[in-house]
């Protein structure tokens, strides 16, 4: 089906075409053009991938599920052929008791085959049920192993983010569905094969009738699944925006600002636009699915009638005896049921396989974004000199660099300050120095060794970053400070005292055990400044970190706490190196070197005295701040 046809038939009204073009609705349309041939071609690789995954999750359960279904198929053939013998004996001439007696061995065979088939299917079903959670866990673990290792820049990439949401929300649950339906497809295929073999044994001419009886329902089922997937794909970005809007309207954190800025009508309006689009697409798909189902049902009725007419003709022409015709009706019904189930499960497999395909594709693309480990990883020693030379960095999708041609030097034990106006590139530079982003041009060297030569985790153990937009971890105070490192009570107390977090802890009824999330029973929330003290304590706790980067650590602190913290930061620098980003220029006077950024480049550098002497951008900003305290109140 060509895309333009689908577009013309969509019911999204023209007056919303502006909305259709919004960024959250962009999607990869390749998969939407999939044809029935595509489905058939895709299935073998899908089945192979699903079985590989199942095998990795549990070889024993996979083997039992497959072997159980295959063996059950053999007993289906036995049962059907034996039924023909039973019918032949029962329909023969003679007294009823004699006929039943003659049919008894075949009857027992039918009963035994049915019983064994049931037992085998039950065993296979139990193995299958055990397999499901194991596969889901494996898929989820793999996903999170990748999402926590990919380069940070991937999270600034809209396509990557969209693909991750699809993989996480649909791909992971559908991985288990794919494994489940793959085994169901094997079951269905074995059932069809068993019926076909039984029909072939009864009379070869009967075999094609099976196909005629089940193809229309299969066609309808495949088409309906594809329509559903198209809707999902068209709406994936819109749905993400809807979730975001619903969080803004129903979560605690933005609730105050929604009211303070009277955002209600704006948010509801945005929500209505996305919801309208979603509704239109869903109605469009529902209409097309209903039409497809009606067509499929009609064709199935016609095909079944045709099969019975052919059987009648064969019987009347003496091609097959009555007992074979009776067993054939049974085999065709069994086969028809198996084939319909097979096509339906193939359908579900294809549908879930698309999401599973998203999952596999995402894992593949995420693997490519995991920074390659260096061939011979160097161990970053406590450094003497960290240098950035001529570095240029552009965020993914940005049209101009956030940093260009920047060079800085950070010596051991120094306090280096990065200052500059909003958006000048301070945070970006700090993240590059921390090895969180890689520059596209230029180099960053740790004692002369390029940062790329270090194992990422080993490097990050040497660097502690207190981000401007630090996360408010929904954990206890202790966990918030220790953050997965070995717990040492003395170090915890020292870090808390250095950051002024000890005062925060003292006020909490549970002290270090207080849970910092009001969404949970007994949880607490902190003020912005209190959270900032906890975040700073986290930085101080990492005493293995040779370099500590503080990105605006005092923006939410009161004047006294701010002064005390800067004193402690200076004191701490004796054995560590501090990179400090701040707008409070009074606090950077004692820095060993100040870099002034402007539009992504270093505009000035030097000590406070040198920069004041220069009377440039820094001196202007400094005097502006200082004069604010001396201006008479109008
Ligand atoms: N994740 C991102 N994706 C794209 N552009 C970004 C991203 N983060 C920052 N930028 C852009 O890069 C430039 C530098 O931003 P950066 O956060 O480094 O500035 P800053 O000097 O730290 O600003 P502030 O004083 O406001 O914290 C800005 O133009 C900003 O819009």
Automatic annotation (TrEMBL):
Domain (ABC transporter) ranges: 386-624
Lineage per the UniProt record: Bacteria, Bacillati, Actinomycetota, Actinomycetes, Streptosporangiales
Main location: membrane
Keywords: ATP-binding, Membrane, Nucleotide-binding, Transmembrane, Transmembrane helix
Protein name (database record): ATP-binding cassette subfamily B protein/ATP-binding cassette subfamily C protein
Pfam families, alphabetized: ABC_tran (PF00005)
Keyword Chaperone set for record: no
Domain of life of the organism encoding this protein: Bacteria
Entry membrane topology: Multi-pass membrane protein
TM ranges: 62-83, 103-127, 175-199, 205-225, 298-331
Species: Nonomuraea angiospora
């Amino acid at each position: 089906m060509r895309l333009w046809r689908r577009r013309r038939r969509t019911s999204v009204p023209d007056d919303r075409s502006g909305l259709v073009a919004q960024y959250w609705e962009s999607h990869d349309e390749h998969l939407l053009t999939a044809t029935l041939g595509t489905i058939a071609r895709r299935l073998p690789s899908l089945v192979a991938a699903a079985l590989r995954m199942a095998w990795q999750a549990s070889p024993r359960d996979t083997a039992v599920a497959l072997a159980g279904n295959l063996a059950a198929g053999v007993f289906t053939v036995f049962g059907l052929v034996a039924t023909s013998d039973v019918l032949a004996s029962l329909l023969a001439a003679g007294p009823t008791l004699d006929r039943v007696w003659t049919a008894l061995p075949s009857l027992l065979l039918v009963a035994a085959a049915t019983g064994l088939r049931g037992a085998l299917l039950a065993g296979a079903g139990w193995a299958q049920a055990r397999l499901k959670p194991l596969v889901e866990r494996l898929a989820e673990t793999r996903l999170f192993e990748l999402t926590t290792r990919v380069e940070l820049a991937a999270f600034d990439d809209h396509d990557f983010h969209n693909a991750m949401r699809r993989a996480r929300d649909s791909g992971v649950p559908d991985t288990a569905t794919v494994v489940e339906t793959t085994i169901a497809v094997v079951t269905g295929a074995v059932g069809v094969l068993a019926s076909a073999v039984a029909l072939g044994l009864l009379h070869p001419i009967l075999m094609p009738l099976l196909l005629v009886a089940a193809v229309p329902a299969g066609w309808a089922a495949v088409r309906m699944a594809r329509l559903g997937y198209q809707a999902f794909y068209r709406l994936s970005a819109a749905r993400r925006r809807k979730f975001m809007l619903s969080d803004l309207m129903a979560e605690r954190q933005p609730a105050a600002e929604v009211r303070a800025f009277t955002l209600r009508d704006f948010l509801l309006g945005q929500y209505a636009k996305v919801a309208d689009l979603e509704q239109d697409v869903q109605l469009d798909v529902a209409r097309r699915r209903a039409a497809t189902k009606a067509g499929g049902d009609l064709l199935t009725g016609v095909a079944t009638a045709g099969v019975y007419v052919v059987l009648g003709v064969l019987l009347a022409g003496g091609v097959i005896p009555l007992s074979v015709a009776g067993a054939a009706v049974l085999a065709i019904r069994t086969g028809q049921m198996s084939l319909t189930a097979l096509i339906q499960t193939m359908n579900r497999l294809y549908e879930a396989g698309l999401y599973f395909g998203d999952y596999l594709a995402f894992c593949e693309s995420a693997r490519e974004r995991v920074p390659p480990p260096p061939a011979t990883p160097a161990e970053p020693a406590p450094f003497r000199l960290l240098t950035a030379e001529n570095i240029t960095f552009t965020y993914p999708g940005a049209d101009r660099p956030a940093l260009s041609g920047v060079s800085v030097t950070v010596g051991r034990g120094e306090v280096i300050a990065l200052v500059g106006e909003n958006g000048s590139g301070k945070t970006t530079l700090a993240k590059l120095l921390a090895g969180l982003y890689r520059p596209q041009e230029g180099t960053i060297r740790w004692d002369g060794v390029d940062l790329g030569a270090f194992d990422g985790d080993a490097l990050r153990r040497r660097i502690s970053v207190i981000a401007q937009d630090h996360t408010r971890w929904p954990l206890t105070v202790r966990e918030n400070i220790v953050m997965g490192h070995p717990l040492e009570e003395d170090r915890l107390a020292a870090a808390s005292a250095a950051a002024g977090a000890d005062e925060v802890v003292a006020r909490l009824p549970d002290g270090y055990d207080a849970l910092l999330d009001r969404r949970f029973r007994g949880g607490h929330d902190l003020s912005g400044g209190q959270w900032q003290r906890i975040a700073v304590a986290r930085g101080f706790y990492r005493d293995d970190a040779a370099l500590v980067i503080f990105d605006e650590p005092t923006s939410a602190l009161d004047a006294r706490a701010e002064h005390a913290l800067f004193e402690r930061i200076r004191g701490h620098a004796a054995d560590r190196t501090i990179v400090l980003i701040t707008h409070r220029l009074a606090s950077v006077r004692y820095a060993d070197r100040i870099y002034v950024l402007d539009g992504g480049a270093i505009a000035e550098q030097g000590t406070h005295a040198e920069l004041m002497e220069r009377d440039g951008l820094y001196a202007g900003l400094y005097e502006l701040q200082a004069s604010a305290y001396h201006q008479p109140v109008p």
